[in-house]
Design a protein that fits this description.
Blueprint lengths: L11 H9 L22 E3 L3 E3 L13 E6 L5 E5 L4 E5 L5 E6 L14 E4 L5 E4 L3 E7 L6 E9 L12 E2 L5 E7 L7 E8 L2 E8 L13 E5 L2 E4 L13 E4 L5 E4 L5 E5 L5 E6 L10 H16 L29 E4 L5 E5 L9 E6 L5 E7 L10 E2 L3 E7 L6 E7 L17 H7 L1
Parallel strand pairs: 1-24
Antiparallel strand pairs: 2-27, 3-4, 4-5, 5-6, 7-8, 8-9, 9-10, 11-12, 12-13, 13-14, 15-16, 17-18, 18-19, 19-20, 21-22, 22-23, 23-24, 25-26, 26-27
Length: 430
């Protein structure tokens, strides 16, 4: 169970008003990085724009939002599986243009846009089931809408693993992995430059709890199965999370400890960042009871016995939930280089997302609460000036895009000073 999965509303202005009315209640290895205290209360942010309608103008209708991103000017990009389109909107949610659409011609994509990422110079990288298409920023429109190049994916196109990342030296980190039945999955990034593999692989460390990333399923044939969402782990179980930095390293968390691990291309530990989140929080009894009831109902609805479920999560069969909430829900590295660590919302915070934000050295800058029920898939996208995420109507499933301005959080306005090193320079140093 994770906070925030759905939203309501019809037209952009109506939806924005509804969300705005959500009440606040509804260093070296082994050495912790320097951080500030936790005295300052979280900065609560309401959406400044909501993009999407249930009917009407097709420019604002979404079928299945698979990726979102925001550039340094605050323009919002939305990748929709239906029609395989990427559309651009102004910071206030006004439709600007279609960047990509389905097809096999120049600038067209053949499958759904599973991921959007920005690189040097504001270039937009769109990943679909066949490969990656890069769009350069146009001097005429200021948008990343000018076709630069495209390339095929290595092996099979990836639509399921974690987000890609473009480092400061232009290296594109293409995510991949393997999830063998009954074994911990392996995740990694293939380094590519100019559309060609460099031969380097950035490995995600084998974190405790990696098995929770396997998808539970049961077989319906010799070579086919049916996925069972929600059974790869029990509610409130800690799950690993990670992201790639501009330096070509991996920042990761197993979800249980209040630290981040930074590892290099060879999997070697570069440093451990202590986050200073305090003591573990017990699960509220009401939430625990509701979640256990939902788990029981999910198990009882299965068309097969539990013994026939592959990749069944630990403690699911015993219906045993943990005693405390996860310390870390997710780790995201913003295009500014800041590190956004998601926490479980405080009691009474309602449908919101809570984050502690750190600079690249591990110093805590601020705590931010985004007051909207943001979905986990696709995950929110963080830039220097804004955050963009997706909400879904709990009844209709209609998706909308919400944006938050960070201009009212002074500590996050300027990009922190950091030593810039390319991936190649890191490897040479070692």
């Amino acid at each position: 169970m994770r906070p925030g999965t759905a939203a309501a509303g019809i037209a952009p202005l109506v939806a924005m008003a509804a969300l705005a009315l959500l009440p606040a209640a509804c260093g070296p290895e082994g050495h912790p990085a320097k951080r500030e205290g936790h005295a300052a209360p979280p900065v609560a942010l309401d959406p400044v724009a909501v993009i999407g309608r249930a009917e009407g103008d097709s420019d604002y209708l979404f079928g299945d939002i698979r990726s979102v991103a925001v550039d340094e000017a605050g323009n919002v990009y939305v990748g929709d599986r239906i029609g395989a389109t990427v559309r651009a909107y102004s910071p206030r949610g006004q439709f600007l243009e279609r960047i990509a659409r389905e097809g096999r011609g120049p600038g067209e994509i053949t499958g759904w846009p599973a991921d959007l990422a920005f690189g040097p110079g504001g270039a937009l990288y769109v990943r679909d089931d066949r490969g990656v298409t890069a769009f350069a920023r146009s001097g005429r429109t200021g948008l990343a809408d000018s076709l630069a190049r495209s390339w095929r994916a290595p092996g099979y196109g990836d639509l399921t693993y974690d987000r890609s990342h473009v480092a400061d030296d232009g290296t594109y980190y293409y995510p991949g992995g393997s999830t063998p039945p009954g074994k911990p999955p392996r995740f990694f990034y293939l380094a590519m430059r100019g559309g060609h593999p460099t031969g380097d692989t950035l490995e995600v460390p084998p974190l405790v709890g990696m098995r929770t990333r396997n998808v539970a399923y049961y077989r319906v044939g010799a070579h086919s199965g049916r996925m069972l969402k929600g059974l790869s782990h029990v509610p409130f179980a800690a799950t690993p999370s990670w992201d790639v930095t501009d330096r070509g390293t991996v920042l990761s968390s197993d979800g249980t400890s209040d630290t981040l691990l930074e590892t290099g291309p060879r999997g070697d530990t570069l440093r451990i960042l202590a986050l200073g989140g305090g003591k573990p929080r017990p699960i509220p009894p009401d939430e625990r009871g509701d979640s256990l009831e939902a788990l029981n109902a999910r198990i009882d609805s299965l068309p097969v016995p539990l013994k026939d479920v592959m990749n069944l999560g630990a403690d699911v069969a015993d219906r045993r939930l943990p005693d405390v909430l996860p310390s870390v829900l997710s780790v995201r590295v913003a295009t500014s280089g800041l590190i956004w660590v998601e926490r479980w919302p405080a009691e009474g915070a309602g449908e919101s997302r809570s984050y502690d934000v750190f600079d690249s050295a591990g110093a805590r800058l601020a705590s931010v609460r985004l007051r909207a029920p943001l979905a986990s898939d696709p995950p929110p996208f963080f830039s220097r000036r804004a955050v963009v995420g997706v909400t879904r109507d709990p009844e209709t499933g209609v998706g909308r895009v919400v944006t938050f301005s960070l201009d009212s959080v002074p500590a996050l306005r300027a990009r922190p000073a950091m030593r810039r090193r390319s991936s190649a320079a890191q490897r040479q140093r070692r």
